[in-house]
Amino acid sequence: MIDLHSHTYYSDGSLSPSELIAMAVESGIEQLAISDHDSIEGLLSLEKMPKELRLIPSVEISASWNKQGLHILGLNIDTQHQGLQAFLKQQQRSRQERAMQIADKLAKAGVTHAIDDVGYLVDSQPMVCRTHIAQLLVEQAYVKNFQEAFKKYLAKGGKAHIKEDWFDLEDVIAIIKSAGGQAVLAHPMRYGLGTNKLKALVEKFKMLGGDGLEICYPNIQPGHKNLLATWAKAYKLCGSQGSDFHSPDKAWIKLGKFAAMPDDVEPVWTRW
Ligand code: AMP
Ligand code: MN
Ligand code: MN
Ligand code: MN
Q: What is the pTM assigned to this prediction?
């Protein structure tokens, strides 16, 4: 039981790192990657490493490629790496600036208090995510649920969408490698790219030094899993797997619950 993708309240998850670890132990997980959005603060907050499972220190970094936003997992990184820490500080500032740009657009779209409320989020959340703003919109009854918050306001085409503007994919892979980690393209089918464009991305990802593709995750279609496995073999990339667990409230996503890694793909955990 290996789960290499999960979040705590140091980004948009709901559990503390130790609560998440306790839940993973309870679920029989042997290796757990905590991979908060652009943050390693949760990992740094732990006073000691757990004994009951192997914790894989990780991070999910936002990147840009041809104006497309991507999530790149840095697995098994050195959390003490100075360059990585400085890089993530910059990501935190970018997220704070983006949140205020979103607030401006929300205000113009008639969401009163948006500037004040998002301003408060920026000050109180260690790493402000669109999820936090979605939560606010639900609480204030501007929308019925998260899906609507994204569709109406925060996602592409929404009234308060800000185009993705992160460090280039190349820089993100480089910083992960310099911190001793494995760079893995997270949830490849969730970007809404067509097959040809996605294949071009996988090819580029390999060329830039990427190590693996996240192949096994909840709700991926079997056909898509097979396609990713074929590309992993063709481009000599490893396979990774993870639940992308955020909260026990989302009961349909459980730690360690996803389809099995195809036999002929090299699992990324053989690298450590
Ligand atoms: P951010 O990294 O701040 O842009 O926020 C991205 C996060 O928002 C993702 O990791 C998901 O947790 C969440 N998210 C993105 N799109 C949606 C959506 N359509 N519905 C619900 N949650 C979403
Ligand atoms: Mn998230
Ligand atoms: Mn992601
Ligand atoms: Mn994630």
A: 0.97
